[in-house]
Amino acid sequence: EIVMTQSPATLSVSPGEGATLSCRASQSVSSNLAWYQQKPGQAPRLLIYGASTRATGIAARFSGSGYGTEFTLTISSLQSEDFAVYYCQQYDKWPPLFTFGPGTKVDI
Amino acid sequence: QVQLQESGPGLVKPSQTLSLTCSVSGGSISSGTYYWGWIRQHPGKGLEWIGYIHYSGSTYYNPSLKSRVTISVDTSKNQFSLKLSSVTAADTAVYYCARAIVMVRGVFDYWGQGTLVTVSS
Q1: Cβ B106–A100 below 8 Å, yes or no?
Q2: Nearest-10 Cα torsion for B107, B113, B119, B121
Q3: What Rg, from alpha-carbon coordinates, does chain A have?
Q4: B105 versus B70: which is more confidently predicted?
């Protein structure tokens, strides 16, 4: 099983500032990496897939990068609605065994 | 716009079978473009993929749950279902149904709102 880790566990940011979230895979997942945003009481929302492709309707202030085992989600100029938990997820292997990271909470 | 909605009992007794249904609207479950899956989230914890199914009947399960999980599809009702047998308190979680894109296999682009299932006597 590919183990995903995320850092930091919590990131405190002021509105208008940028944020950089990290995700690491225990083995290479190529670019088969997605990012999701989850707000309290809501389902996760797909932000990024293919490590760097924004999902439909996702604001340009969200960007993803990385390949192999190291990935980054960058949020430029945080808006109030961006304070949430962010999860990375790998989908590299077939037959599938998709795994998620433990999440990074972005708070004020 | 595709919408997914979970339904089923919110309380299940230990050793019994958890059964949930996901109703899909705004799109056909028979589209070959998607897998239809289940993901759960233990209270205050992260996300765990349970498995998914293609309308053709192909199923894929998380090996850690495979012996207890069955996912099925009912194209006539545009629904798919999850059965998890021999449940324990460790199966208490919010269960989400979600759609995955075949072309990228494991990317879940639409999710239901989730339903909390508590395992308790």
Answers
A1: no
A2: -170
A3: 13
A4: B70
Query: In the structure, what pLDDT confidence band is assigned to residue B27 with cuts at 50, 70 and 90?
Result: very high
Strands B93-101 and B34-41: antiparallel
| A103 vs B contacts (CB less than 8 Å) | 46
Would you list the DSSP string of A18-49?
Answer: -EEEEEEESS--TT-EEEEEE-TTS--EEEEE
Residue B35: closest C-alpha in chain A: A96
Least CB–CB distance from B49: residue in A45, A95, A98: A98
* Closest by CA position to A93, among listed B25, B49, B117, B43: B49
Q: Which chain A residues are within 8 Å of B3, Cβ to Cβ? A: none
How far is B53 from chain A, CA to nearest CA, in Å?
12
For A80, list phi and psi in degrees, rounded to 5. Answer: -60, -35
